[in-house]
Amino acid sequence: MIALSDELAIVALPGEIFVELGLALKKASPFKTTIIAELANGSIGYVPNREAYPQGNYEIVSARGEVGSGEKLVEVALRLLGEVKK
Q: CB within 10 Å: which end of the chain, N or C, has fewer?
């Protein structure tokens, strides 16, 4: 997490984050503008949202995380954004 100002932050995530997770992160962020950089600091592969798992598409089959791991990643990122915002 990097706060560039009181209104702008960058979040670096290690994987290909499903758009629903990125949108949820941006919506809940304490910053007016939150930029998400994917595939930062290595790659854990695809990071699906919980709703995508039952679909069983290629991204889901090759994902390394378990159901809910994408939401956990967003939760932790939001907690860290909150700490940076203080």
A: C
Q: Do strands 8-12 and 33-37 pair parallel, antiparallel, or not at all (unpaired)? A: parallel
List phi, psi (to 5°) of 56: 65, 25
Tell me the whole-structure pTM to 2 decimals: 0.90
Residue 68, amino acid: G
CB 73 within 8 A of CB 12: no
Query: Buried b vs exposed e over 40-62: b needs ≥16 C-beta within 10 Å?
Result: eeeebebbbbeebbeeeeeeeee
Residue that is written with structure tokens 């949108």 in the block: 23
Written as six digits, the tokens of 17 are 């984050």
Nearest-angstrom CA–CA distance, 67 and 85: 29
The ranges of the chain with pLDDT < 50 are none
